[in-house]
Amino acid sequence: MRLFLFLPIQGSLLVLTSFLNNSLEFIKGAGTVKAELLAAELGIRTVGDMLEHYPFRYVDRSQIMTLADLRSLNDFGQVRGILGPLREEGTNVKKRLRGSFTDSTGSIELIWFKGVKWMKENLLPGNEYMLYGKVTNFMSNLNVVHPELERIIDSRIPQGYLQPIYSTTEKLTKRGLSSKGIEKIIENIISRPELAVEETLPDYLRESLVLVPKKKAIIDIHRPKSQADINQASRRLKFEELFYIQLELLLKKELRSKQVSGFTFENVGDYFNTFYEKHLPFELTNAQKRVLREVRRDMKSGTQMNRLLQGDVGSGKTIVAALAALIAIDNGFQACIMAPTEILAGQHYQTISELLGEMNIKIDLLTGSVKTKRRREIDEACTSGELHILIGTHALLEDKVTFKNLGLAIIDEQHRFGVAQRAKLWKKNTRPPHILVMTATPIPRTLSMTLYGDLDVSVIDELPPGRKDVQTMHVKDNARLRIFGFMEDQIRRGRQIYVVYPLIEESKVLDLKDLMDGYESIARRFPTPKYQISIVHGRMKPADKDFEMNRFVKGETQIMVATTVIEVGVNVPNASVMIIESAQRFGLSQLHQLRGRVGRGAEQSYCVLATDVKLSSEARLRMKTMCETNDGFRIAEVDLNLRGPGDLMGTQQSGIVGLKLADLVTDVKVLQYARNTVMDILEEDPNLKLEKHLPVRKKAIDIMKNKPNWSRIS
Ligand code: ADP
Ligand code: MG
């Protein structure tokens, strides 16, 4: 990969780009002051930067409607009419400007809260204007807030003009760089004869993907003549944007795989085959089979596996982990499985011990609460190689835990562990073991391709057969009696119930009080000895927690009142009702995780979301989404839409906020295409030496230059 860094870049390419590298101040309409302001406000410094400031929407200036139409449209539209007198109201701080606008179908009020002075000085009441805006209902008055107004002179209306709308800031607007001002600067750049836009994608690729040339795309995105122009231009530019992000990620991955060699697991031997043929308790789903093939391929490739396995709650990741461990054992290696909580580690230990019960394999469990003497036994068995699989919490990471020959490390719920903790697992053998990280936190494909683009991603996108969707309902707190009635009915049918309270770190005391109050009112309604209730929260000693948990697992208690400690991994198939209190305080992904605790048995399961009576519109959408779908990926997408990628777990450091045109939610297909294309190219021409890949190689050199520390990032 380093090779081509030393190869000279052809001079002509540099000449071509020089106009784009020019400072903006030399462009008509910009000038020094505006150029400085553009740099400060939007980070736009060069002509090239300006051209990459793409419009975020277009106004069709050929469509003119009446005010009556605009009123019923509930969207932005354009109306031609007369501007009425303007009236300034309020004090200095809370100044506003009102006006009116009239056409043959009636009048409407206009209102400005910002830019009052500028509007007042520049608008000319009594004249004909083209208004662009949306009718809103403000303080029970219909009006248009902050309309765009353009004066019509000589009755001349530009025909068929798709006006680009650019994002700008208040400061820029005050300096004349409203969207319109930016449009003018860009016009001036585009009409310059020396405008040369270098092609950044190989010709053969553009032809096969039917993408317009870069120069045409740039011109069309700013000055489209038709909707088709916009579509083609944005398709081309989005592809390019995503293509180069993927190139960066995949180069990084390649670099790592060259520098870190891995163990080669050539054999699929007795352990795997015997288990697969004789003891597999169910037929694997197609998705599980596919993932297993992907894992096997990695493990015998000679490079270290770094694979993320995504699968919704209940999709069956554990069996995949167990089978992968068997391959390691078949090749004379040990495996470890690390889980974030004692409860979860314990459950893995139990499940996997049962699965592999007939296999003569030695498995043990190591957590913080294992006593010193047992601990020493485990350490010894691990170091001598007698132990095949060690399951545990982060206790596994401690330096005294050494393996004879660790070949595979599996991490469940990887987002609960930091990068540093994962790195410790790497050091458990002279050569790093293969790494399989598993997560039930669904991340939309687009996001995982960008976030984890340097890992290989496998997805179990299919649930085992026979699962019934959990029925979800949203009830307000004032329906408490109905909820109790429902609980009673379910218990009479032999079911068990979870009641979960939110836990927020900052207010532990308050949360505990909520939980205790809830517990008391449930205990009054469901008294002993007829009913038994378990309670589990983060302040209890682990031993007490386990005791309470076990009573519920064994069916001795009917109701489990808990904080979110039960969120991860607990498996009680007879529990078929999940009641989530103050559900508005949970994010979508957490609600989905909690709901995943039920629906594991043969019975119809239910999830009740109890919320405050009054809800924000966002909370309402969360509840609605939960009631409408059980699909974790669908939910993750809504979540992404609501919160934006910046707020999703781990995305802060990922540097993907800089997307200019592509949208991680709506451009999934383009992204997938871009990624596949990059993979094909790197496969055919890993050093990008072929003539036809010159543009790609040039960009790769740029990328490498800016990322000197890549090889040290894991
Ligand atoms: P998760 O992906 O949430 O870790 P688990 O591995 O705990 O899911 O599996 C959930 C349940 O589904 C377990 O009871 C497991 O035995 C069962 N299961 C897994 N795979 C299959 C399958 N192919 N057919 C039937 N049941 C399965
Ligand atoms: Mg699991």
From TrEMBL:
<feature type="domain" description="Helicase C-terminal">
    <location>
        <begin position="486"/>
        <end position="646"/>
    </location>
</feature>
<dbReference type="InterPro" id="IPR012340">
    <property type="entry name" value="NA-bd_OB-fold"/>
</dbReference>
<keyword id="KW-0234">DNA repair</keyword>
<dbReference type="InterPro" id="IPR011545">
    <property type="entry name" value="DEAD/DEAH_box_helicase_dom"/>
</dbReference>
<dbReference type="Pfam" id="PF00271">
    <property type="entry name" value="Helicase_C"/>
</dbReference>
<keyword id="KW-0413">Isomerase</keyword>
<dbReference type="InterPro" id="IPR004609">
    <property type="entry name" value="ATP-dep_DNA_helicase_RecG"/>
</dbReference>
<dbReference type="InterPro" id="IPR001650">
    <property type="entry name" value="Helicase_C-like"/>
</dbReference>
<dbReference type="InterPro" id="IPR027417">
    <property type="entry name" value="P-loop_NTPase"/>
</dbReference>
<comment type="function">
    <text>Plays a critical role in recombination and DNA repair. Helps process Holliday junction intermediates to mature products by catalyzing branch migration. Has replication fork regression activity, unwinds stalled or blocked replication forks to make a HJ that can be resolved. Has a DNA unwinding activity characteristic of a DNA helicase with 3'-5' polarity.</text>
</comment>
<dbReference type="Pfam" id="PF19833">
    <property type="entry name" value="RecG_dom3_C"/>
</dbReference>
<dbReference type="GO" id="GO:0005524">
    <property type="term" value="F:ATP binding"/>
</dbReference>
<dbReference type="Pfam" id="PF17191">
    <property type="entry name" value="RecG_wedge"/>
</dbReference>
<dbReference type="GO" id="GO:0016787">
    <property type="term" value="F:hydrolase activity"/>
</dbReference>
<keyword id="KW-0547">Nucleotide-binding</keyword>
<keyword id="KW-0378">Hydrolase</keyword>
<keyword id="KW-0347">Helicase</keyword>
<dbReference type="GO" id="GO:0006281">
    <property type="term" value="P:DNA repair"/>
</dbReference>
<protein>
    <recommendedName>
        <fullName>ATP-dependent DNA helicase RecG</fullName>
        <ecNumber>5.6.2.4</ecNumber>
    </recommendedName>
</protein>
<feature type="domain" description="Helicase ATP-binding">
    <location>
        <begin position="298"/>
        <end position="460"/>
    </location>
</feature>
<dbReference type="GO" id="GO:0006310">
    <property type="term" value="P:DNA recombination"/>
</dbReference>
<keyword id="KW-0238">DNA-binding</keyword>
<dbReference type="GO" id="GO:0043138">
    <property type="term" value="F:3'-5' DNA helicase activity"/>
</dbReference>
<dbReference type="Pfam" id="PF00270">
    <property type="entry name" value="DEAD"/>
</dbReference>
<dbReference type="InterPro" id="IPR033454">
    <property type="entry name" value="RecG_wedge"/>
</dbReference>
<comment type="similarity">
    <text>Belongs to the helicase family. RecG subfamily.</text>
</comment>
<keyword id="KW-0227">DNA damage</keyword>
<dbReference type="GO" id="GO:0003677">
    <property type="term" value="F:DNA binding"/>
</dbReference>
<keyword id="KW-0233">DNA recombination</keyword>
<dbReference type="InterPro" id="IPR014001">
    <property type="entry name" value="Helicase_ATP-bd"/>
</dbReference>
<keyword id="KW-0067">ATP-binding</keyword>
<dbReference type="InterPro" id="IPR045562">
    <property type="entry name" value="RecG_dom3_C"/>
</dbReference>
<dbReference type="InterPro" id="IPR047112">
    <property type="entry name" value="RecG/Mfd"/>
</dbReference>
